[in-house]
Amino acid sequence: MLFLMKKGVFLILSYLTTLFPNIVLAADASSSKKAENPFYECLSGDASNPKKYCTKLPETKNKQPIKVQISLHLLDILEINQMEGTWDVRTFMYSQWKDPRLKFNPKDFDGIRKLNYKGSLADDQMLRMWHPNLTITNQMSRREIENREISISKFGIVYYKEVFTAKIRTRLNFQKFPFDEHVLTIEVEPFSETQKFVRLVPAVRKNGNSSISPDIWTVDKFKVEFSDRPGARNQLSEETGLWLAPDGSKNFSLMTFSLGIKRNYFNFLTTKLLVLYFFAFILWINAGFASEEGSHRWPWELFLGIIFFSLEAQSDLPALPYVTLYNVLVNFIYAYALTDFVLWIIGERLSEKHKSKIVLQRIKIWFIGPFFPLISLFTVYWYINHV
Q1: Is the pTM of this model over 0.90?
Q2: How confident is the model at residue 364 (pLDDT cuts 50, 70, 90)?
Q3: Which of 214, 234, 262 represents a domain boundary (last residue)?
């Protein structure tokens, strides 16, 4: 019995001694394959000393531009600054491209078919490999990246995800204020390569907007456009003296995310504009109750209130080189008040029972008073539909 046990232990040990070298050899073979493929340095090399053959522009068939799929999803509108002409946003950006140098054999990476890099690992991977260096060209300062994730498939397809916040410059048109509508934009393009080398295209992942409308605004529809535009940087042309792109052309591939917004004008109308018209209505009432016999005092305090209140409402906007609808309506109120004042002066110079004084009184009450709100309504209609 003891003899059989010893023989069994001997057989087991003999089997393990033959199996273990095979395991070691397989591991060594896997390591040797990694060592034989220099492009594996693009996936797991030293990020502080990246290889140049990993960070340069990938080669494509027939020298076609690299197609970079991109989409944006607006997560939140943090602020719309009317005075500065900027809006602060929190956005999710997705992009995808293919780099043949990043292909790998899953057997060389413990059977993993897709390599994932998150946090600081994603930052290191950005240093190891080429990427389109997507830049928001209309941002006021460098965007702050909250989170970043990179996935690379065994076929060399790169999936890039990023959540960022940024202060973005945009053009605001206040001509229809307080019924104004605006288009806020985010413009994205590759920083270095022109469309000859890199072209932005729509991604399979759709663009979107899940933001909540700010207090005084209502968020409207969004749209995405892909185009190209001249870029001026990197190289000075001796012939034209213009700053050109590295390949001598001036066109960069551009993605423009546009979001429409409308002002919630009800609060402004009820707290500011209608208050000014109420002052004008009091002027009309003052003219109606003025006695046809004897003089009456013209309400200077009311006119000063119109001036100060209108200036306070205008403080919501920056200094503008054009006239807004609000400016026109306020000027109507000024014109009505000054007309009433001139007619009051003329009336004061006439005798108490002069027929002309009675006529002036009726003109103020039955012609000028009703004409003023009618012309205001017509102006609002015309501005909204034609400006």
Answers
A1: no
A2: confident
A3: 262
